Amino acid sequence: MRTLFLLLSLSLSLWAATLHLALGAAPSRINPLLATDSASGEITGWVFNGLVKFDKEGRIVGDLAENWRFETPTRLVFHLRAGVTWHDGKPFGAEDVRFTFNLTRSKKLFTPYASDFRYVKRVETPDEKTVVVEYKEPYYKALSIWMMGILPAHLWQKERDPMTSSLNRHPIGTGPYKLAGLSDTGDVVLKANPDYFEHPPRIARIHYHFLPDATTRFLMLKSGKLDLDTLTPLQVSRQIGPRFKKRFRIITQPGHGYTYLGFNLKSKIFQDHRVREAIDLAIDKEALIRILFFNYGKVCRGPFMPDTFAYPKNPPAPRYDPKRAEALLKAAGYDRHHPLRFTISTNANNTTRLYAAQIIQHQLAKVGVKVKIRAMEWQAFLNTVVTPRRFDAVLLGWGLGLIPDAYPLWHSDSDKLGGFNLVGYRNADVDRWIEEAERTTDLAKVGELYRKIFKQIVQDHPYVFLYIPDSVTAVNRAIHPIEPSLIGIMHNQIEWIKP
Predict the structure, then answer these.
(1) Which one of 168, 194, 226 terminates a domain?
(2) Dihedral sign of CA atoms 297, 300, 304, 308 in order
(3) What are 113-126's pLDDT values in tens digits?
(4) Is residue 213 located within the same domain as residue 263?
């Protein structure tokens, strides 16, 4: 009897635990079709599920879908899990998937994710547990686009204006956690879904503390009021000691984004490949990482994420060769008496990026290049510099995905107003490889093509690929099991126990 009482007490204490996290901004819409900011995306991820997801190795596995098959290269059939319910107790089914897809095409909804479904011809539901997706042509992201969260048709079909619906603030999903409250202070509280189809999360609540100030956030972490948060290189190198490390486990992993110096290829000076290569050779990327990140980072060697199918086994090695840089500049008609001059434009509110611009300015001066720096507030920077392409060179960053999409950044068609091909990169071979990759569902073939794209872009030097900062996370040592992986540490959160 005493043993049973102890086991019951332990179970109740685990269930009563709260995971304390931080948010730097308040979520705007908790809706997978409208969550474009990081805060909204993070909360949405707890509340909703897609048909598929990534496992810890970066492989696509079932989520709301139990299995799937390609009947033809343009016909994808999903078989949905049985017994899945929405947070309000209603059953999840195929009609929810069809409704969500149709909503992405509604003129009433403005979602940036609609372009992911541009090759979908129609979605059919022959029965409540089967979804058939017909594509206009074979598409390499035919499966991965269904990681998008699914909405409950029985609630959303009653809404006249999905952009202003109260469901964006009071969401009903199928996910492991339900929204328990959005406070006036900006805090967000989630409670475990006892009917979650895998099993109920072992931690009963997640409390997101709204902490927009980085210093306050760090102090909250040091005092033990947060269970998990990221650390800056300065913090992990200089501002934590043995007491902090006794309480927190420090996990360092490669980040999922890179910083680059992009050349305006419509500018006469940067149409000369020798100039672009010279600048690349004159920038010491290792020094940037040492100064900016206390060595918590890696040199970026190209446009796609390391350790994915799109990344070459032996990517071109980065080189730092100022003598070769000077020789190339001289061949292009520049020397100390007739120096190359240009301006690096960046956003002023990113201090790391601004410091990087100053280091690059100093390094290029050593080979006789005169650089000015133009730093602006983010929105003004976008509106007056980036969008109209009024720059010599820009210092910016891009995210790195497990399944990259080269079309928005590197295809010639994206060299237009509103497109992401900001530098005006055009290469007929790259265009052809991108188009060929888009028209296949064979990821091995896509990988082969993307590795060719990677090497060609690096060879063309439209960017100087600079660095990938490490992601450094502190986690309460009392929480287990923590399993770092390619997709981060939160992938198995429903298994976590916090005594």
Answers:
(1) 168
(2) negative
(3) 888 898 999 999 99
(4) no
